[in-house]
């Protein structure tokens, strides 16, 4: 009851500063919804991997060019699109972001628009699937652009639409994603005052919105550890320095960083070793072993601290075995941080879009998002949209990045409502 009353108080407070949406707004939403679904199914059936979204980017750009008065920049960050819509009334410059890339995942369902696409990835032929819902994000933002364009004379301020490639990570040593969009001026000309992003959730009830003020999603670091030992016959381990045995101790030591060295009352920390590679046969002690893994933190200071602790732990344990070790850590994303002031100002917009009973505060999420790089430059707010079918047990829903990932399309229009309402409600916050 207290949460509902708080939400209503925010709604009332927000209404006082918000611009009124035009009277034909509901009709525009109703008209665009079938197109939204059609676009989503098109993208779902024709997925493309990071930095290879050639057809996706062109499809988006071609559509936006059909809306008179929208400035379209393409390509940006290799395959992305930036579009600018200037409203007929004064207001802030608001950026709305959607990611457009897919994943090397096999689709295991019988949808008539299921992906059958395959492509080359890292030297291998792989299936491709929108297994994280970026097809829905893209379609929601396209629908938002169409609705806001139809209301242009009543639109306060300027809206910048960011269709971003390579959120899942550019291949190899290529540049890409949010950092490259920023580098190429996506937040400049016009200078953006605030940026909003949405992410679909297959395990959150359809049509609901979840948010968290402050740190929301984790940073993501990838590490590589190479342990250098001395080869020997497997029957005479004392004649060498076993890098596999040292690696086993290192794996255990990394978990002690989490359980015994980090203050988990501040924020969670995850260290996962995902691969270990060493040796060629059972009776040979190899010279080297290599492991890779990921680090997730929800506090920027803890992120730096964990890096130093990993390097110290690895080198110390290796030295205790007579081995040496090299550690490299590559930061893929920062902590996705929702600006508390921006959340407070614009939360009423989410409530109006979805209803007070359908907006709730989330817990921390250890998944990561390169949307975090936009938030490093301007105030940002990133939130989740539910797409779990009614009556479905969340624990039995296909998780993101898996072959069984599935979305209920009926709630996508709530994402359009949220974006539109955010634009109008934020108009006087500059």
Distinctive features:
430 residues, alpha/beta, Aminopeptidase, eight-stranded mixed β-sheet, six-stranded mixed β-sheet, 34% helix, disordered N terminus
Furnish the topology, listing elements before pairings.
Blueprint: H1 2-17, H2 25-45, H3 54-64, E1 71-76, E2 80-86, E3 89-99, E4 118-121, E5 124-127, H4 134-150, E6 156-164, H5 177-183, E7 194-205, E8 209-211, E9 214-228, E10 232-233, H6 243-261, E11 269-278, E12 284-285, E13 288-297, H7 300-320, E14 324-333, E15 336-338, H8 340-354, E16 359-361, E17 365-368, H9 372-377, E18 380-388, H10 412-425
Q: How is this structure best summarized?
A:
The protein is α/β, with parallel strands linked by helices. Helix content is 34%, strand content 29%.
The CATH topology label of the largest domain is: Aminopeptidase
Main β-sheet description = 8 strands, mixed
Q: Kindly report the spatial arrangement of strands forming the biggest sheet.
A: 1-2-6-3-7-18-8-16
What's the average pLDDT?
95
The radius of gyration is: 24 Å
> CA-to-CA gap between the ends?
33 Å
Report on the architecture of this protein.
The protein is of the alpha/beta class and 430 residues long. It has 2 domains: 2-217 and 335-425, Aminopeptidase (3-Layer(aba) Sandwich); 230-322, 2-Layer Sandwich (Alpha-Beta Plaits). It is 34% helix and 29% strand. It is built from 10 helices and 18 strands. The strands form 4 sheets. It has an 8-stranded mixed sheet with strand order 1-2-6-3-7-18-8-16, sandwiched between helices. A hairpin with a 3-residue loop joins strand 1 (71-76) and strand 2. Helix 2 (25-45) crosses helix 10 (412-425). The radius of gyration is 24 Å and the shape is elongated. 49% of the residues are buried.
């Amino acid at each position: 009851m207290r949460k509902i009353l708080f939400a209503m108080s925010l709604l009332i407070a927000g209404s006082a500063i918000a611009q009124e949406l035009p009277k034909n707004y509901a009709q525009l939403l109703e008209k665009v919804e079938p197109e939204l679904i059609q676009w989503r199914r098109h993208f779902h059936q024709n997925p493309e991997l990071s930095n290879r979204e050639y057809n996706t980017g062109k499809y988006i750009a071609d559509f936006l060019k059909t809306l008179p008065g929208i400035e379209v920049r393409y390509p940006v960050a290799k395959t992305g699109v930036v579009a600018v819509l200037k409203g007929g009334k004064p207001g802030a410059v608001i950026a709305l972001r959607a990611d457009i890339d897919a994943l090397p995942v096999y689709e295991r369902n019988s949808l008539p628009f299921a992906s059958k696409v395959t492509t080359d990835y890292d030297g291998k032929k792989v299936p491709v699937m929108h297994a994280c819902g970026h097809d829905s994000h893209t379609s929601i933002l396209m629908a938002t652009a169409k609705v806001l364009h139809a209301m242009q004379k009543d639109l306060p301020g300027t809206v910048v639409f960011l269709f971003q490639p390579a959120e899942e990570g550019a291949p190899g040593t290529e540049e890409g994603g949010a950092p490259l969009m920023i580098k190429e001026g996506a937040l400049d000309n016009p200078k953006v005052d605030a940026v909003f992003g949405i992410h679909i959730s297959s395990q959150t009830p359809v049509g609901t919105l979840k948010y968290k003020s402050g740190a929301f999603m984790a940073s993501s670091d990838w590490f590589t550890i190479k342990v250098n030992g001395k080869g020997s016959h497997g029957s005479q381990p004392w004649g060498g320095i076993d890098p596999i045995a040292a690696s086993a101790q290192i794996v255990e030591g990394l978990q002690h960083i989490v359980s015994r060295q980090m203050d988990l009352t501040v924020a969670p920390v995850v260290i996962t070793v995902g691969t270990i590679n060493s040796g060629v046969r059972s009776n040979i002690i190899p010279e080297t072993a290599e492991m890779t893994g990921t680090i997730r933190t929800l506090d920027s200071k803890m992120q730096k601290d964990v890096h130093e602790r990993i390097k110290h732990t690895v080198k110390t344990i290796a030295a205790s075995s007579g081995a040496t070790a090299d550690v490299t850590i590559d930061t893929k994303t920062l902590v996705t941080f929702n600006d508390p002031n921006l959340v407070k100002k614009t939360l009423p917009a989410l409530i109006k879009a979805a209803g007070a009973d359908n907006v709730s505060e989330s817990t921390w999420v250890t998944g990561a998002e390169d949307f975090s790089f936009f938030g490093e430059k301007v105030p940002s707010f990133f939130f989740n949209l539910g797409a779990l079918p009614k009556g479905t047990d969340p624990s039995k829903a296909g998780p993101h990045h898996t072959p069984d990932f599935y979305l209920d399309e009926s709630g996508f229009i709530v994402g359009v409502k949220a974006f539109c309402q955010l634009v109008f409600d934020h108009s006087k916050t500059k």
